[in-house]
Amino acid sequence: MGWNSHFALAQSCGMSALSSFCSHFCPPQIEITKLHEFAQAAFNGYKSLNLIQIHIFHTAYYTNENILVCAPTGAGKTNIAMISILHEVESTQTMIRIVGLSATLLNYLEVAQFLRLNPEAGLFFFDSSYRPVPLA
User: Fold this and answer.
1) Whole-number pLDDT of residue 7
2) Distance CA 81, CA 73 (A)
3) Cα–Cα dist 74/68, whole Å
4) Residue 43 has what pLDDT?
5) 3-state secondary structure of 101
6) CA distance between the termini of the chain
7) For the chain, which residues make up each domain, given as ranges?
8) What residues does 125 pair with on adjacent strands?
9) For 26-79, what is each residue's pLDDT tens digit?
10) Model-level pTM?
11) What is the CATH code of the structural domain delimited by 15-130?
């Protein structure tokens, strides 16, 4: 699995540590207005992609790779799936693309193998430290 495919933050990682990490390793912010019009529809009401979406964006938007995204509920997986599907509809009617989404998936490597995706390009796993809203 590639370095960009598995994103896990230490449970003890506070926001200041996360901010420091992001200032060194996170890609730049992607504003919704910079996307093609068809892609903007998947992000109605948002100003920019979140951290998880930024990491997945290139693969979802610029490639035809099958994708498996494992991230907490509310992390923006559905929006990425929509942008992937809209990209395929916009670019071609003949391509079939698999976009798998899961909030909790312990055997994500086996599922990736079953989907026949390239784990270096299409597998994204984010642990619970990426949960946008804590569970009550």
Assistant:
1) 53
2) 14
3) 16
4) 87
5) strand
6) 33
7) 15-130
8) 6, 70
9) 678 899 999 988 888 888 889 999 988 998 899 988 888 888 888 888 888 888
10) 0.66
11) 3.40.50.300
**Strand order across the 123-126 sheet:** 6-7, 123-126, 67-70, 99-102
Task: Render the burial of 20-56: b for 16+ CB within 10 Å, e for the rest.
Answer: eeeeeeeeeebebeebeeebeebbeeeeebbbbbbbb
Q: Residue 126: beta bridge partners?
A: 7
- Strand extents, DSSP E, the chain: 6-7, 67-70, 99-102, 123-126
Alpha-carbon distance 7 to 78, whole Å?
Answer: 18
Residue 128: predicted pLDDT? 78
Residue showing tokens 């200032």: 23
In this prediction, residue 49 carries a pLDDT of 92
Under DSSP, the state recorded for 86 is: H
